Amino acid sequence: MAQAEISNHLVTELRESFGKGAARKIRAVGKIPAVIYGHGTEPQHVTLPGHEVGLILRKSNQILELDIQGKIQLALVKDVQKDPVRQIIEHIDLIVVRKGEKVVIDVPIHLEGEAAPGTTVNQDANTISLEAEATNIPESVVVSIEGAEDGTSIHAKDLVLPKGSSLITDEDTLIVAISIAAEQDLGEEAEAPAAEEAAPAAE
Known about the structure:
By secondary structure, the chain is mostly beta strands.
């Protein structure tokens, strides 16, 4: 599934104060410090509205349409830094993108369906690297395991990629393997003779 056309419109503010103290003041009023870079442009330091950004970042690889003093700039969310304890967003790195431009991103892999009864599903890769248009980044790559039998293995080259995307991950990368769950040896047969030997002889 691909993301819809750009709708993540945010009004931003240029910031001129830097450092930890300034960043704390920005977060205290419900905003998030961020930096925009790329395409040979000078880095721009901005503040983003915290609540709106929090909602947008529930999904990965988001493109933001930033209104910077009346000028529109598209940017891809590249890195989100969070407080490790409180999980509050502390800072965001954004990369300048242009319509029609292609970017390399890691896209989540979503398993769909149920494998054959009695089998175990081992997912070796949770994401896959793709090249896609910056304004049409897929939200996920769906892999069907419906009815998959023991011995089934799905590699990156077997995936059905979203339209307009191309594979960057090595095509032989294992994504999913289906196997029969190994039966646990409880050692009952070995314990039986020992129990017989321990029993007292009948008179």
